[in-house]
Amino acid sequence: MIGIFDSGLGGIFLLKELSQQFPKQSFIYLADRKNFPYGEKSSSLVRSLVKKNINFLINQGAEHIIVACNTASVTLRDADSHQVPVKGVIEASLRQAKKDSLNKKVGLLATLGTVKSQVFLKKVKKLNFNLQIYQQACPLLAPFVEQGGWNINRHIAKNKELDSLLEKYLQPLINKGVDTVIMGCTHYLYLEPAIKKYIGKNKKTVGPVNFLIKDLYRTSQLLYGPDSLGLNKVRIHSKKQEQKNKRIRTKETNNKKINIFINGQNKDFGQQLHQIWEQKKDIPISIKII
Fold first, then answer.
1. Given CA atoms 217, 220, 225, 229 in this order, what sign does their dihedral have?
2. Same domain, yes or no, for 70 and 164?
3. For 65-112, how does the pLDDT look when each residue is reduced to its tens digit (9 = 90+)?
4. In a 10 Å sphere around its CB, with 0-12 CB exposed, 13-18 middle and 19+ buried, how is residue 174 labelled?
5. Domain housing 100
6. How far apart are CA 151 and CA 52, in angstroms?
7. What's the pTM?
8. Which residues are catalytic?
9. Cα separation of 114 and 119, whole Å?
């Protein structure tokens, strides 16, 4: 079972992606709404929240935990000892940027807390990556997503607001000559189409998803043996094969469950969650307020 937590909607994006990639796995998601947003809190407070959330997920049966928040990932330390593997999202994003960037000039969109920590700069140095990171704090983007911006295509009135924010945050990076932009907050993943449109086709946007999947699968193999997570490796080659693969996936998901815990009452969050998830009847989803 895989546990994921975030302070808001950002981690739901990762939950959805990982659920599709690991069809045999059940998931536990903790939305720490009571403490949203993490990006404006002190590092010591965020670290205590991270520890508390990790313990909650372990008590719920999580065997792997993903800290689906860059600000929270900042507080993870190599020397930390946990009962289960715990992964942040920062290194995964940097590895994707290293792979994609041609001129090695990379822009970073992130919260104030992440930028102040300079964790991306420190991690680049530690990994010995030949990347020049240009940081841009975006204090208004995560709240924009939480207030309905995650569904920008249905909120036409918000387009002008988003255009203004993207110009404010992206233009300085473009002026620096970056060819790749890291979405250093999982909330920004919802805005990727708009970000891509603004920076142009000759530049790339990156997030943690691809390398996080690879890292999670590799760790599981080492600890529990081959295919312990059931990574979805199915490739569609024909209509007949597609129908066969669909039957296989349906069989594999019979025992799959997704339990979502919301820390703090928030009816709007529950409604948004259902809309984002596009819930399927063959995968039971439980939502509880704690």
1. negative
2. no
3. 999 999 899 888 765 678 888 989 999 999 999 999 999 999 999 999
4. middle
5. 90-206
6. 31
7. 0.83
8. 69, 185
9. 7
Tokens of 40: 């404006």
Q: Are residues 256 and 193 in the same domain?
A: no
List the structure tokens of 67.
Answer: 């800290």
Dihedral pair phi/psi, residue 74, rounded to 5°: -55, -35
Write out the DSSP string of the chain.
-EEEEESSSHHHHHHHHHHHH-TT--EEEEE-GGG--GGGS-HHHHHHHHHHHHHHHHHTT-SEEEE--HHHHTT--TT---SS-EE-SHHHHHHHHHHH-SS-EEEEEE-HHHHHHTHHHHHHHHHT---EEEEEE-TTHHHHHHTTGGGGGG-GGGHHHHHHHHHHHHHHHHHTT-SEEEE-SGGGGGGHHHHHHHH-TTSEEE-SHHHHHHHHHHHHHHHH-TTSS--------SHHHHHHHHHHHHHHGGG--EEEEESS--HHHHHHHHHHHT--TTS-EEEEE-
> In 3D, which of 234, 230, 211, 59 has the Cα closest to residue 129?
211
- Count: domains in the chain: 2
160 and 236 share one domain? no
Task: Indicate the average pLDDT of the chain.
Answer: 83
- The answer to whether residues 36 and 20 belong to one domain is yes
What CATH number did the domain enclosing 31 receive?
Answer: 3.40.50.1860
C-alpha to C-alpha distance for 89 and 73, rounded to whole angstroms: 6
